[in-house]
Design a protein that fits this description.
By secondary structure, this protein is an alpha+beta fold. The chain is 62% helix and 8% strand.
Length: 291
């Protein structure tokens, strides 16, 4: 068989080749079946599915992305997807501070922090490790009130400042977000605004309390000396756990919704049953009517 006859026989299936070896014609069906199975497996492994949606279907998916709201608008869907931000703003701030500290200690993660009272009666912080590899914390000893310790959140005073400053920022962010909701969100009135603000402040207060407890516990640990990143990681983890727990309870038991409904019903009852106008010593008074 010359080359041309061999190529024609191989093309029409009379001859088969497996792993570079020419096989008898009696094995052609089995080998072809095996080759087709391997080819089908390769095609299925590299399979990519593309779904073509109409514009209406795409809009419906976006609207229901964060909850079943078939009649909501684009901006309503955006607010629903970003509503959790106010509950975890403090955790985002804590994570940023932890990243700053980790970046400062990236050349020596084993830096230990010890808080003690020096011979002059001042509370000080000792950092063990090579100071030459650090860019910001260039000294081995600082007072607890040093601005670098405050900025990095190291020591009890630095942690207290981080808790209070974080709570202040959370309140500002929450108030700004709720104002945006009041201005642009559909079916969002003053009752929703006041109810959500009240719940945000309550969550922040619980977070501050948890932060103070962590700071008190860290003070005892820092007196014996511990790793700087370990303390920061525990503080971030506790804050995240508390925020998630509060968010879970609020979402499961609908505490914010119950508070908003209670405020709305209370206002309706007050309008339906106005209280009598009473002055001191029982003198009658005239009701003030708004025109």
């Amino acid at each position: 068989m010359n080359r041309r006859e061999f190529e024609m026989a191989f093309t029409d299936g009379s001859l088969v080749v497996e792993n570079g070896t020419l096989k008898p014609l009696s094995m052609s069906k089995e080998i072809r079946r095996k080759q087709y199975a391997e080819l089908e497996k390769k095609l299925s492994d590299n399979e990519e599915l593309y779904v073509l949606l109409t514009f209406e279907e795409a809009v419906n998916i976006v609207k229901n992305m964060c909850g079943p709201n078939p009649n909501s608008s684009w901006k309503e869907a955006g607010f629903l997807c970003s509503d959790f931000v106010t509950s975890f703003t403090g955790n985002i701030i804590d994570a940023y501070g932890f990243a700053q500290l980790a970046n400062e200690l990236r050349n020596n993660f084993g830096v230990r922090v010890t808080e003690y009272v020096d011979r002059f009666g001042n509370r000080s912080i000792r950092l063990t490790g090579r100071t030459g590899v650090r860019r910001f914390l260039t000294a081995a000893k600082y007072t607890v009130g040093n601005w670098k310790m405050i900025d990095m959140g190291i020591g009890t005073q630095g942690m207290q400042h981080a808790v209070i400053d974080g709570a202040r920022r959370v309140i500002f962010v929450g108030a700004a977000y709720r104002l945006l909701e009041l201005a642009f969100r559909d079916e969002y009135d003053l009752y929703n605004f006041l109810g959500n603000i009240t719940m945000d402040v309550a969550k922040t207060a619980v977070g501050v309390l948890a932060g103070m407890v962590v700071t008190a516990a860290a003070g005892m640990i820092l007196a014996a000396g511990t790793y700087a990143l370990a303390v920061a990681a525990v503080a971030v983890g506790v804050g995240l756990a508390v925020s998630y727990l509060l968010y879970y309870l609020d979402d499961k038991y609908e505490l914010s919704k119950a508070l908003i409904d209670h405020m709305r019903k209370l206002d309706q009852m007050t309008k339906a049953h106005p209280r009598p106008c009473i002055q001191p010593f029982g003198y009658p008074c005239e009701e003030i009517k708004l025109k």
